Amino acid sequence: MDLEHAASHYEEYGFVCLRNFLPQTMLDMVEPVVRTFHDRWVEDNHLFYKASAINSSGLTAETYLEKEERQKLFALIGSEEMSKLATTLLKRPIYMNSQLFFNPINPHQKNYWHRDGQYHLSLEEQKDALQGPDIIHVRIPLANEPGMELVPKSHKTWDSPLALDVRLEKNGHKKSDPLPEGQIVQLNRGDVLAFSANMLHRGLYGQERFALDILFCEPEMHSFLNDVHQPCAEIKATLECLAVFP
Question: For a designed S-S bond to 217, which of 39, 101, 165, 221 qualifies (C-beta 3.0 to 4.6 A apart)?
Answer without folding.
Answer: 221
